[in-house]
């Protein structure tokens, strides 16, 4: 909450009450649109309109609103907190919006207003829309000005993407046409029939969404510690460990759920006659090879790592620690990965040596010490 510009318990209390009110409203809306005035099935099957609204509305305007909050409220408050100003002395959040002089003391480009935007002189705004990379040395989180820049850029991308699909006007993409045109030399009929599956089977939809959200949760688990987004979170090891474990478990549950609902789809909703020789049919016909390879891979990884544990335990029990596999005894090094990384280091040194400068403390370079913690 510090990174949102919240400095007092009252400020935390207000959005909590607001969230409670909104959740009650949404529960009512859910009941109303399910039991009193449920939309027709065709409304749910109009995927182009759904994609446009979700991309431009939810993601685009959502990112835009968040970047606006970060720029106008969170950035000035966090800049003052990082400078050591006590929370009691920081002006109230709305004052940063109504008092331009207050903002231009912290970010000089605010004195110019929106003129640089319309004169395409966007470089003026680089004092609060930065591209520094790395972490803030005061609090060990990513630079908030980088994060605001990121959300503003994403909002532009998503709002453009929300005008991509063909609805009432004759221009734009059709989901069905894209899928059916997507044929490769080795994939038979390609994705013919997939559009019909995903507009008629809730289980197929749910399986894909769970697989995506599960994978995303696992990616979030790793990024939360590799690129710590909040102030001081990088040195709060208990929180880091809990966040990692939580997102890995949730991701695992979602992926298992994806498999479960894909299975229900196969039993209840799949029609082999409508999916002859498309990608889905070909995958299903290769299922023995695919599953046995996955099974073999899991056995390989499991037995080899277990074998290393047994070896190390035995060596330690016999007092032969010099024969263990570890960084200080027998080293196991990823020589193929090192070879690739070496090529990636040599290539730019010939063509663009500036690329080799450390972009971020997060990706190589020195460690950052925050309050005597790494």
UniProtKB/TrEMBL annotation:
Keywords: Chloroplast, Membrane, Plastid, Transmembrane, Transmembrane helix. The keyword Methyltransferase does not apply. It holds the Pfam family PsaA_PsaB. InterPro entries: PSI_PsaA/B (IPR001280), PSI_PsaA/B_sf (IPR036408). Gene3D superfamilies: Photosystem I PsaA/PsaB (1.20.1130.10). One of its GO terms (biological process) is photosynthesis. The keyword Transmembrane applies. Signal peptide: none annotated. One of its GO terms (cellular component) is chloroplast thylakoid membrane. The chain crosses the membrane at residues 12-34, 206-226, 246-268, 289-310. This is Photosystem I P700 apoprotein A1. It comes from Melanothamnus sp. The lineage of its organism: Eukaryota, Rhodophyta, Florideophyceae, Rhodymeniophycidae, Ceramiales.
């Amino acid at each position: 909450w510090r990174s949102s510009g919240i400095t007092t318990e009252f400020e935390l209390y207000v959005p909590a009450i607001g969230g409670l009110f909104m959740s009650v409203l949404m529960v009512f809306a859910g009941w109303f649109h399910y039991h009193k005035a449920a939309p027709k099935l065709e409304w749910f099957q109009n995927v182009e309109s759904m994609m446009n609204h979700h991309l431009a509305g939810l993601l685009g305007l959502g990112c835009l609103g968040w970047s606006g909050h970060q720029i106008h409220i969170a950035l000035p408050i966090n800049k003052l907190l990082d400078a050591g100003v006590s929370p009691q002395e920081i002006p109230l959040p709305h004052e940063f919006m109504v008092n331009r002089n207050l903002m231009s003391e912290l970010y000089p480009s605010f004195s110019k207003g929106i003129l640089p935007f319309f004169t395409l002189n966007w470089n003026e705004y680089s004092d609060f829309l930065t591209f520094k990379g790395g972490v803030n040395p005061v609090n060990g989180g990513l630079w908030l000005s980088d994060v605001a820049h990121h959300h503003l850029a994403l909002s532009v991308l998503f709002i453009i993407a929300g005008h991509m699909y063909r609805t009432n006007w004759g221009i734009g993409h059709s989901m069905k046409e894209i899928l059916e045109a997507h044929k490769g030399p080795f994939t038979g009929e390609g994705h013919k029939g997939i559009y019909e599956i995903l507009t008629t089977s809730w289980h197929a939809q749910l399986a894909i969404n769970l697989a995506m959200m599960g994978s995303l949760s696992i990616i979030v688990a790793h990024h939360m510690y590799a690129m710590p987004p909040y102030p001081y979170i990088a040195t709060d090891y208990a929180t880091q460990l809990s966040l990692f474990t939580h997102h890995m478990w949730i991701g695992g549950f979602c992926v298992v759920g994806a498999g479960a609902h894909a299975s229900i789809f196969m039993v209840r909703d799949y029609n082999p006659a409508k999916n002859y020789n498309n990608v889905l049919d070909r995958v299903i016909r290769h299922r023995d090879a695919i599953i046995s390879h996955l099974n073999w891979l899991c056995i390989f990884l499991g037995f080899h790592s277990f074998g290393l544990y047994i070896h190390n335990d035995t060596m330690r029990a016999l007092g032969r620690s010099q024969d263990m596999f570890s960084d200080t005894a027998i080293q196991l090094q990823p020589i193929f990965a090192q070879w690739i990384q070496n090529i990636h280091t040599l290539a730019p040194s010939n063509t663009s040596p500036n690329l080799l400068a450390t972009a971020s403390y997060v990706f190589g370079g020195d460690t950052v010490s925050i309050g005597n913690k790494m």
